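sorry for the late reply, my laptop died twice this morning and i had to redo everyting from scratch. anyway the thing you sent over, i finally got around to it. pasting the sequence first so we're on the same page, its 130 residues, then the predicted structure underneath. double check i copied it right bc i was rushing
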Amino acid sequence: MVAAYDTVAAFLDDLDPPRREVVEMLRAAILRDRPQLEEHIKWNSPSYVLDGVDRITINVKNRQGTVQLVLHMGSTRREDKGRPPILAEDAGLVSWQSDTRGVVTFQDRGDLVTKQAALNGVVTRWLQLT
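ok and here's the structure:
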């Protein structure tokens, strides 16, 4: 992978086919029925902005070699690792790193397909939080 990307297309072009498929499926799931989101490159990955704040970022650069969807409240909101998550999520899909940052991990396409319905609900509820 190159050091920096100017566009989402450049980011995608640098991925191996299996990982690219998962990322493209995630992008479609995030953007579907959410015209209020803006997609751009932030932190060298596709990120999704709502009302001027980055709220969701796709991470493919992790030790596990997985595709991760990071739910967050941008870079300026303070996180508290000792507080419970601000989103109640019963499916166990999200691994919470703090009260305002959680990660959903996908091993491959099949894993994403299995989690897709629950993921859609989580993303919808996440974007409703302020």
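The beta strands are 38-42, 45-50, 53-59, 67-71, 95-96, 102-106.
thats about all i looked at so far, will dig more tmrw
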